[in-house]
């Protein structure tokens, strides 16, 4: 026998326990992972095809670090904020993202040169809209193209 009030109270204790385990680092970890997963996916969908179609070496420019980004992102997502490896994991991830971010100094100007202002505007809207489509977690074996599948922890 298990009284309903006990069941409800157990639920309340679970919620309190979850609440106590939430910290700011975990919240920002989720936010960071979501932003990065969205960003990589949106680039894959909208930016890479333009490079591939219009640049002779477009494919190698856009695909060379993708696997490493996904692997490091997964490792970061799987590391609890209380784990001593948490800060090293995010530093590790940012280290591999550094060259990707620096590409904005030459890849993005090259991209804008390939596009009309209307095309650029249209891609910008499509890019922003992918936020509702992308998975909340990344995975090294995640597909490179749609359909995107949520990867459970
Ligand atoms: Fe990027």
TrEMBL record:
Pfam family, one: Hemerythrin
Compositional bias of kind Basic and acidic residues: 59-78
Domain (Hemerythrin-like) ranges: 5-107
Biased composition (Polar residues): 117-127
Chain segments carrying region Disordered: 59-84, 117-153
Superkingdom, taxonomy of origin: Eukaryota
InterPro entries in UniProt: Hemerythrin-like
Protein's recorded name: Hemerythrin-like domain-containing protein
